Task: structure prediction
Amino acid sequence: MIEIATSAATTTLVIAGDLDLAERDQFPEIAARVVGLRRQLLVIDMCDVTFMDSTGAAFLISLADASRKRGGATVLRGADPRDLFVLEICGALELFRIDADHRCQAAEGGAGQVAEDASTTG
Result:
């Protein structure tokens, strides 16, 4: 699944699941929509990508190349090292800025809960 969100200067693609040959039928429509938005910054959120093959990499490369040709930039956030490796093998890693500071949100769980009764004395 790929969702598109926009702000005044940014287009954000949020990708979930596999980015591979099985999903390629949706790539041309999504690419046309993203290019048509003409934002300076394209952010590709890959936090929920479970697998990417060369077809998915080619899709990301085409988006980054189109952005670069318009004078924009493409940022990858939440990319797994293996996804970066695929882009590197394709010779295209330099088309992307890597957001190394971004931390993907953990799955829903209760990790942030605080036990408030610890200070209660009875």
About this structure: The first strand starts at residue 2 and ends at 6. The longest helix spans residues 54-69.
